Amino acid sequence: MAQRDGTIRVRLTINGERRALDVHPAARLLDVLRVQLGLTGTKEGCGEGECGACTVLMDGLPVNSCLVAAFQADGSVVETVESVDPGHLTPLLVHGATQCGACTPGVVMTGEWVNRNRELLERFTLRELMAGNFCRCTGYDGIIEGVEARIASDESP
Ligand code: FES
Ligand code: FES
Questions:
Q1: Atom 3, ligand 1: residue with shortest CA distance
Q2: Given ligand 2 and candidates 51, 133, 135, 140, which is best to mutate, with the most ligand atoms within 8 Å of its CB?
Q3: Beta strands across the sheet bearing 77-79
Q4: Is domain 8-82 annotated with CATH 3.10.20.30?
Q5: Which has the closest alpha carbon to 64: 51, 77, 81?
Q6: What CATH number matches the domain at 84-155, 3.40.50.450, 3.40.50.620, 1.10.150.120, 2.30.30.40?
Q7: In this predicted model, what pLDDT tens digit does every residue of 109-156 receive, in sequence order?
Q8: Model-level pTM greater than 0.85?
Q9: What is the per-residue pLDDT across 15-48, written as a single tens digit (0 to 9) for each?
Q10: Does the C-beta of 68 come closer than 6 Å to ligand 1?
Q11: 1 pLDDT higher than 80
């Protein structure tokens, strides 16, 4: 609901913490994360829903946070790269999945989504599932191999 100052009160859970935030009606979820909350791990690339650099999980699904109005996130559970166990990043680093790093937080979050929903790999290739995450540096092989290794690391005893 709009408040006297024109902001909208939004309640959501971010990285496991319940938050009540007053957001500008035009604010994007990306703005709230980066500017209002200082969670700058999530990157802005195109700002138009094309590159995937701003990918976060919203209620368990990957979304481009540059396309989500902050008020649309009311009541949702949002996970950003800051919530990911640093140990999950090691396989990506080992396989050269990151160079400049601009795409990496989005890649990590999409990879987490695939890892939690492995049945998707029975219908789609990993490359297809990661198609929304653009990278201008790596040529993608390192990304695919790194995410595969991340998934395999959860499967090993
Ligand atoms: S910054 Fe959101 S998709 Fe590119
Ligand atoms: S590592 Fe530079 S855009 Fe992917």
A1: 49
A2: 135
A3: 17-23, 8-14, 77-79, 55-58, 61-64
A4: yes
A5: 51
A6: 1.10.150.120
A7: 999 999 999 999 999 999 999 999 999 999 999 999 999 999 998 876
A8: yes
A9: 999 999 999 999 999 999 999 999 999 999 999 9
A10: no
A11: no
